[in-house]
Amino acid sequence: MTMLSVQIVKGKLKSMNDRVRKANIANETLNNSFIKEAIEDIKKHCHRNIETSKHEEQEKREDMYYMLRAVDCFENILIKYINDGKQALSGINQTEIKRLKR
User: Fold this and answer.
1) Which domain, by its residues, includes 81?
2) Which residues fall within 8 angstroms of residue 46, CB to CB, at 6 or more apart?
3) Is the pTM higher than 0.90?
4) Number of independent structural domains in the chain
């Protein structure tokens, strides 16, 4: 293997390790009991405000809707990071298997 090939492989492994580390942080965040409770409280607050809003409070309902979308987006991004880390970990394992076979 040439020096350039070694550098490329090391760069890919570093990138994969970074993705795995990011996934671990996302997983810890998503499973943190305080974060879970805060997310649920935000969702309940928004739904309660939507349900109790008066007919003429369209702007308030829209604000609550956007807040709910933001919370969902936050959760979905963390899940994306977790899934990306799983793929990276699989790639690291495959790279390690290839290296051991040599």
Assistant:
1) 36-102
2) 64, 65, 67, 68, 71
3) no
4) 1
